Fold Nucleotide-binding protein A8990_101283.
Amino acid sequence: MAENSFDIVSKVDMQELNNAITQAEREIETRFDFKNSKSSITLEKDDIVVVSDDEYKLKSVIDILQSKMIKRGVPIKNMEFGKLEGASAGTVRQKIKLKQGIEQDISKKINTLIRDSKLKVKSQIQGDSIRVTGKSLDDLQAVMAMLRGADLQIDLQFTNYR
């Protein structure tokens, strides 16, 4: 019988993220509570930089951004918030780092979860993704369901399911 497999990855769709940022900026421009404010959202490689007048408005901008990301299917679990810092002209800035790929310690935790599940599957770390193989499609789907229910710090996607 043939081996079936799938890959576990954690990626952020940068095009959808860019669209979410554009939508959030458009909403900020039209909202009354942001009239005459210096609020902006910029994307720099794997970082999002949010700038606003004060801490309260910055939190509101981040809330707007997160709601747009959720609507577009961009995972917000992969956001790692930096510390609040002062910027020019009395504004505040916060960098948000985007996690791409599965880090080594989380990969080991996922491997341990799969091994402890007692399902007849094998998992193998391949760089920043994990390949899970097994004879039964039901076992592979059980692994997917178990990982969806697990409390991990990142959002997981399942690709190359065959």
Summary: The first helix runs from residue 14 to 30. The two ends are 13 Å apart (CA to CA). Residues 37 and 53 are 6 Å apart (CA to CA). Strands lie at 4-9, 40-44, 47-52, 79-81, 85-86, 92-98, 121-126, 129-134, 157-159.
